[in-house]
Structure to design on (237 residues):
């Protein structure tokens, strides 16, 4: 039986429609998982009954995060937020951490994972980051690898990608600032912006700031190893 992976989605509020980039679904399928898009629930008991049937949690990209989750007022450059998604992800992340089930967060997913566990973030890199930045919102095709990242070899990420430096795509104006206890940075950009972090106490809890789902079909990119490692962890291996 293939592992069943829950995916959180954005919502287009005006039309009350869920929104999911197909690349995320295909990435889970290609790695050997069965993707299931999670609906928004207000009843925690209903959420828990659904999550019990899942083997892993995948947190994809999307809109900005409500800064009230990390005790800040909204910055002037804060973009669109979906509080309903934030609330759902807070519940499901907490559940998966408690059960020590694998979690993979991508871009926004990396940020909400950090915030829910007690970390903080930059609401807008261009105006809040203290040092000179490289471009983190690329003006190029989704599969273009626009900047490099430095990876700590001894980390989970380092063991998955088997390299200390790689090129990634980049589509974000927010970023993680500080991590909660029991988490560690596993990759940074050349300007010091956090590009990946992971748990020190869970089997597989990993957040990456770039979009590996847009790179897995490139023959020389190690991003597919991230998904394969995630799915193997969801199998209990």
């Amino acid at each position: 039986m293939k592992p069943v992976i829950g995916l959180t989605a954005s919502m287009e509020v005006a039309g009350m429609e869920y929104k999911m980039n197909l690349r995320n679904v295909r990435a889970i399928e290609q790695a050997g998982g069965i993707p299931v898009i999670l609906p928004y629930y207000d009843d925690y008991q209903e959420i828990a009954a659904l999550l019990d049937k899942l083997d892993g949690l995948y947190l994809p990209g999307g809109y900005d995060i409500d800064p009230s989750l990390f005790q800040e007022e909204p910055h002037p450059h804060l973009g669109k937020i979906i509080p309903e998604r934030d609330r759902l992800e807070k519940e499901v992340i907490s559940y998966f951490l408690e059960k020590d089930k694998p979690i993979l967060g991508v871009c926004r997913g990396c940020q909400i994972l950090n915030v829910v566990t007690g970390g903080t973030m930059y609401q807008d890199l261009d105006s809040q980051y203290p040092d000179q930045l490289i471009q983190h919102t690329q003006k190029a095709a989704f599969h273009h690898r626009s900047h490099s990242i430095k990876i700590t070899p001894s980390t989970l990420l380092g063991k998955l990608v088997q390299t200390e430096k790689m090129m990634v795509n980049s589509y974000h104006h927010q970023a993680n600032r500080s991590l909660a206890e029991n988490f560690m940075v596993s990759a940074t950009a050349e300007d010091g912006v956090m590009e990946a972090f992971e748990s020190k106490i869970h089997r597989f809890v990993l957040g990456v700031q770039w979009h590996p789902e847009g790179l897995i079909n490139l023959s020389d990119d190690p991003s597919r190893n991230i998904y394969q490692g995630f799915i193997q962890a969801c199998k209990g291996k």
Remarks:
- The mean pLDDT is 94.
